[in-house]
C-alpha cells in the first residue's frame, strides 16, 4: 500500500501546497506553512441515512411570528436592520479602526438594557475598565449590561451560561480563539471556527449576537468570504475622519432590505442619530453665487439632497489642474468633455475644481446634470437659483437620460423647500404637487430651465 503523503497547509488562509515553502503563495504571509496529517479518504459508497431528531413540518404550520424583530431603541440602526434585532440572528458589523463601531454598540446595549433586558458585552481588544471609561463618557452605563474581557471562546460560552443574555456583543471576532483549532489568532481557520460556534449558539439559545469585524486596506471584511455567508446580516460602518457623519450601510440582510442606510453623527460625548441628513449637505449663501447647483442623490433607498460646487479659473500652466472631492473624477471629466462639445465650454486653459458640500459622496449618474450646471454656471459666472434642484444623467451626445426614483427625489426636494426641479423628459412617475417641474431633453434646455427661460418645457404643478 502506498504511503500517505503529508499535507502542508497555511495557517493563515488554509491554502495547501505539496511541500514546505517559506512564504504562502496565496496570502503572501511568511512562516505560516506547517505540516499536517493527511485527510481521511472519503468512502466511495453512498452515505447511509440517519433518522432525524425532529420530523420535517409543513411550511404552513410554522408560526410567522417566530422570528419577530425586537427594536434596539435606536431608530436609525433599526431602519438598517429591518425593524430591529431578530432573536437567534447573527449580525456582522465591519468598519475601519476609530470609525465608532464600539461607541455605537455601547449605545445599542444601553438602549437594550433600558428595556429591562440583559446584554453581554465581550471585548477582546480592551479591558473591562477601558470599556467602562468609554461608557461613562458616552453615558452608556446600565446595571443590566455585563462586561467580559475574554478572548477564549470556551470561556465566552461559560459567561453566556451564567448571564443568560438576550443580546451579546463580540468585539471583535478576529480576537477570539477557538481552543483545539489550528491557525493563528485572526486567521481564516480560527475566524471560521469561532463564527460557526457562535452561529450555532445563537440558533440554539435564541440569543441575538452582534460581531464586530475588521476590514482590510481595500475596505473589505477581513477574514474568509464564508464569514459573510455564515451570518444573517452584514453591515458596513462608514465614515470620513474629516467629517462627523457616520453611515451604517446594509450589505446583506435576511430579515429586511439590504440597501438601507442609517445616518449618525459622531461627537465627543457619543454617537447620535441623524434622522434628516440632507441639511448637512447644503450650504445657504446670503446671496446666490455662481458655480453651485443642488441635486438629490439616492443612497440605498434614502433620498438625500446635496450641493455641488465648481470653480473654473484661467491659468497659464501647460497642464491645468483638475481636483475633485466627493465626486467620481471620471464622470466630472466626462461632463467637461460633453460641455465642451455641446455647450461651448473650453476648459483646456482653465483649472477645474469640483466638490460636494459637507463631505457627501456621490457616485451615481443622476448627479451628472447638477455637475454640468455647476460647471456651466461657473464658466458663465451666472448663478443658478438656490431654489432649483437638478436630477438627471447626461449622455455623450448631450441628451438628458431618465434615472430611477424620480418621484422620491422630487418629494425630498419639495420637503426641504425647493420650488423648482429639473428632471429628464419622459419620466412617467407620478410626481408630487406643489413644486414646479421642468422636463428637459438636452443640456442646453436644462441650463435654460435653470435660468428660467420660457423655451424650456416647463410644467407648473398645481398647488
Question: How does this structure look, described?
Answer:
- 24% of the residues lie in helices and 25% in strands.
- The protein has 463 residues and is α/β, with parallel strands linked by helices.
- The strands form 4 sheets. It has a 9-stranded mixed beta sheet, sandwiched between helices. An 8-stranded mixed beta sheet has the order 15-16-14-13-17-20-21-22.
- Helix 7 crosses helix 8.
- One of its GO terms (cellular component) is cytosol.
- Residues 351-463 are annotated as: Lon-protease-like.
- This is DNA repair protein RadA.
Strand content: 25-35%
Q: Report how far apart the termini are.
A: 90 Å
| CATH H-level superfamily of the largest domain | P-loop containing nucleotide triphosphate hydrolases
* CATH topology label of the largest domain: Rossmann fold
How many strand units?
22
The CATH first-level class of the largest domain comes to Alpha Beta
Largest sheet: 9 strands, mixed
Q: Identify low-pLDDT runs.
A: 41-45, 453-463
Helix content: 10-25%
Number of domains: 3
Number of discrete helical segments: 10
Mean pLDDT across every amino acid position: 87
Q: Nearest-angstrom radius of gyration? A: 28 Å
Region (Lon-protease-like): 351-463
Keywords: ATP-binding, DNA damage, DNA repair, DNA-binding, Hydrolase, Metal-binding, Nucleotide-binding, Stress response, Zinc, Zinc-finger
Protein name: DNA repair protein RadA
GO biological process, one term: recombinational repair
